[in-house]
Prior knowledge:
The protein is of the alpha+beta class. The protein has helices at residues 20-24, 57-61; strands at residues 5-10, 30-32, 44-46, 67-71.
Amino acid sequence: xxxxxxxxxxxxxxxxxxxxxxxxxxxxxxxxxxxxxxxxxxxxxxxxxxxxxxxxxxxxxxxxxxxxxxxx
Length: 72
């Protein structure tokens, strides 16, 4: 049974904008933000939560543990 995804959360204090999470997502859930944060980084943002299948590749590949998938 597919998991129900409630949120994909990016911790803005931990994320350094490497965009590995964007590149490993097979479903196009994340994209680079158009706005720079206060440290000068373009952080990832969720653009298609409905496409998330809770594979957690973004979590597994994040070198800074800055992303989490909240799913049943």
